[in-house]
C-alpha cells in the first residue's frame, strides 16, 4: 500500500535581485508575499533582492517566503528586462513577468522565445478598466510625475509658491506640463500643491477636463491627435511643424517645463526646441521624462543634467527607481493582480493556467508556448 504523501505540489514564484544599474525596486514586497502565500503559492526570494528598497531578507521570511534560488521557480517576476545571462537561467516552460520592452528590445524577446519561456510584459497590459489594478505603467508613472516636480523645484532658482514677506511679495512660479497622461497629471497635482501656477497641454483634447479638475489651466494650441488605447497618435509632419511653432511661443512664458510625451515603440516627439529653450528666462528648468526614448527637448542629454542658454535641462532615467519603497509596493500589487488572473484551483492546489481567451493575458503575453496555446484555444 502506497503511504507516500498525496499533497499536491505548490506553484512557486521566484523573485530575483535586480541586476540593472541603478534599479532599486523589487518585484514583490512582503505584504504581497503574504497575500500570495494565502492562495497556496510558494515564494522563493533571492538573498538581498529587497535591499535596494530597504527590505531585508528577514521581512520576507517572516512573510512566509524562502530565501534561495528564484530562477528554478514556475514563475519568475522581475522589474527590469532580463539580461542574456538571466535568460539562460530560466527553464523551458517558465513564466516570466516584468517590464520587457517588447517594442524596442526585439533581441530579448527573441531569446526568451528561443528559451521556451512564456513571457508577460507589464507594459503590454491593455489599458482597460478591468486591468487597472495591473497597470504598472500608470503606477510607476505616478511616481515619476511626482519626483519630476521635486527635481524641478530643486534645480529652480525661484520659489514655487507666492510668498508675501516684509521684504515684499514674490510671485509664484509658472509650470507647464507637456503630455498629461498619468505622469503628467501627477506632475500638475504636485506642482499645484507646491504653490506653482500650473498649465497642462496634450494633443488629446479629452484630457482638458482632467487638467482643469486639478486647478490647472489648459493650453489650447488647436492641434488634436487622438489615438488608440489611451495614447496619442503620431502627428503628421504639418501638424508637428505647427505644434512646434505654437509651443515655442508658449514655452518662453514659463519658469518650469516638464515633458512626459511618449509614443510606444517610437522616438519621443520633440516638443521643446532649442529655440524655445533660448527664449526662456535665465534660471528656468526643463525636466524631460522621455529621455529613455530620445527626449522631448531638442537639447536633452539622456541621463544628464545640463545648462544651455542659462536654462537647466534635466533628463533623469528611471525615476521610479529613486523612490524604491513606494514604487516597489505599487508595482508588486500590479504583478500580484496579473498573477492572480493566471492562478487556477487544481485538485486542492493552485496552478498557473492562463486563459488565452482573456484579453488581458492574451495581449500582455509576448512569447507563448505553442502547445499550451493550442490546448487553451488561443493562437500561438
From TrEMBL:
Catalytic activity, as annotated: NAD(+) + NADPH + H(+)(in) = NADH + NADP(+) + H(+)(out)
SUPFAM superfamilies: Formate/glycerate dehydrogenase catalytic domain-like, NAD(P)-binding Rossmann-fold domains
Alphabetized CDD domains for the sequence: Rubrum_tdh
Signal peptide positions on this chain: none
Enzyme Commission number(s): 7.1.1.1
Pfam name, any one: AlaDh_PNT_N
Domain Alanine dehydrogenase/pyridine nucleotide transhydrogenase NAD(H)-binding, residue spans: 153-315
Stretches the record annotates as Disordered: 1-20
Alphabetically ordered keywords of this record: NAD, NADP, Nucleotide-binding, Oxidoreductase, Translocase
UniProt entry tagged with the keyword Oxidoreductase: yes
Ranges of residues in domain Alanine dehydrogenase/pyridine nucleotide transhydrogenase N-terminal: 14-144
Gene Ontology molecular-function annotations: oxidoreductase activity
Cited function: The transhydrogenation between NADH and NADP is coupled to respiration and ATP hydrolysis and functions as a proton pump across the membrane.
Listed name of the protein: proton-translocating NAD(P)(+) transhydrogenase
Species: Pseudonocardia xinjiangensis
Amino acid at each position: 500500500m502506497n503511504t507516500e504523501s498525496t499533497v499536491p505540489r505548490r506553484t512557486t514564484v521566484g523573485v530575483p535581485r535586480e541586476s540593472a544599474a541603478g534599479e532599486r525596486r523589487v518585484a514583490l514586497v512582503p505584504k504581497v508575499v503574504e497575500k500570495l502565500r494565502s492562495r497556496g503559492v510558494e515564494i522563493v526570494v533571492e538573498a538581498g533582492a529587497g535591499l535596494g528598497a530597504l527590505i531585508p531578507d528577514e521581512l520576507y521570511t517572516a512573510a512566509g517566503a524562502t530565501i534561495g534560488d528564484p530562477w528554478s521557480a514556475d514563475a519568475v517576476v522581475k522589474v527590469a528586462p532580463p539580461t542574456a545571462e538571466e535568460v539562460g537561467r530560466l527553464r523551458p516552460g517558465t513564466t516570466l513577468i516584468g517590464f520587457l520592452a517588447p517594442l524596442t528590445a526585439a533581441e530579448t524577446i527573441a531569446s526568451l522565445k528561443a528559451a521556451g519561456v512564456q513571457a508577460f510584459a507589464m507594459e503590454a497590459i491593455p489599458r482597460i478598466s478591468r486591468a487597472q489594478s495591473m497597470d504598472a505603467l500608470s503606477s510607476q508613472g505616478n511616481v515619476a510625475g511626482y519626483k519630476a516636480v521635486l527635481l524641478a523645484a530643486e534645480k529652480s532658482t525661484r520659489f514655487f509658491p507666492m510668498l508675501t514677506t516684509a521684504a515684499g511679495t514674490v510671485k509664484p512660479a509658472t509650470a507647464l506640463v507637456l503630455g498629461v497622461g498619468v505622469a503628467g497629471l501627477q506632475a500638475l497635482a504636485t506642482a499645484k500643491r507646491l504653490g506653482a501656477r500650473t498649465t497642462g497641454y496634450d494633443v488629446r483634447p479629452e484630457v482638458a477636463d482632467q487638467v482643469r479638475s486639478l486647478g490647472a489651466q489648459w493650453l489650447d494650441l488647436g492641434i488634436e491627435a487622438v489615438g488608440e488605447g489611451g495614447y496619442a497618435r503620431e502627428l503628421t509632419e504639418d501638424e508637428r511643424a505647427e505644434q512646434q511653432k505654437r509651443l515655442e511661443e508658449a514655452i518662453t512664458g514659463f519658469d518650469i517645463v516638464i515633458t512626459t510625451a511618449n509614443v510606444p515603440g517610437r522616438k519621443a516627439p520633440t516638443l521643446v526646441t532649442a529655440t524655445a529653450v533660448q527664449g526662456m528666462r535665465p534660471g528656468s528648468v526643463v525636466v524631460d521624462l522621455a529621455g529613455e526614448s530620445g527626449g522631448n527637448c531638442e537639447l536633452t542629454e539622456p541621463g544628464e543634467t545640463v545648462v544651455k542658454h542659462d536654462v537647466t535641462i534635466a533628463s533623469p532615467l528611471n525615476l521610479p527607481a529613486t523612490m524604491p519603497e513606494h514604487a516597489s509596493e505599487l508595482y508588486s500589487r500590479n504583478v500580484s493582480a496579473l498573477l492572480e488572473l493566471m492562478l487556477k484551483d487544481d485538485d486542492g492546489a493552485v496552478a498557473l493556467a492562463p486563459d488565452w481567451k482573456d484579453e488581458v493575458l492574451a495581449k500582455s503575453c509576448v512569447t507563448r508556448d505553442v502547445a499550451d496555446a493550442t490546448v487553451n484555444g488561443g493562437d500561438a
